[in-house]
Amino acid sequence: MVYADLHVHTRRSDGTLTLETVPDAARGAGVAVVAVTDHDRFHPDLDGPVVERDGVTVIHGIELRVEGPHGRVDLLGYGLEPTDELRAAVERIQRDRRERGRAIVECVEDRLGIDLDVGIREGLGRPHVARAIEDHPDIDLDYDAAFGELIGNDGPCFVARDVPSFERGRSLLDDACALVGLAHPFRYDDPEAALSLTADLDAVEGYYPYGRPVDESLIDAAVREHDLLVTGGSDAHGRTLGAAGLAAAEYEPIERRLDRR
Question: Does 234 score more than 90 pLDDT?
Answer without folding.
Answer: yes
